[in-house]
Design a protein that fits this description.
By secondary structure, this protein is mainly alpha-helical. The protein has one domain. The two termini are 23 Å apart.
């Protein structure tokens, strides 16, 4: 399903997929081992364990993805201050997608 169509039916999942497709680190993990696209399932525990040694900004994006997915992980939006301008734009795009235009 195309992302725009997915966003109409499930903006939570569309935002997660957009984030994984557009973040250089996360796109490496858009695999069956971590993401079941067809069943809309994220292997949360595996991703959290994997991301422990990552940088603060990389962990922010994992947490954001999981938060958008099911709210299981809290996200401190103040951490956006640590992101570069490209990653800040990515956050804006993801939130617009999730919240249908904000």
């Amino acid at each position: 399903m195309e992302l725009s169509e997915l966003a109409k039916h499930n903006p939570h999942w569309a935002a997660v997929i957009y984030l994984f497709n557009n973040h250089s680190k996360l796109e490496r993990y858009l695999t069956d081992e971590y993401i079941d696209y067809d069943n809309q399932v994220i292997e949360v525990k595996q991703l959290l364990k994997l991301s422990k040694p990552w940088s603060r900004s990389e962990q922010f994006f994992v947490n954001l993805a999981i938060h958008l997915y099911n709210g299981e992980v809290s996200v401190d939006l103040n951490d956006i201050d640590y992101l570069d301008s490209n990653n800040k734009q990515l956050v804006k795009n993801v939130l617009r997608l999730r919240f249908k235009g904000l």
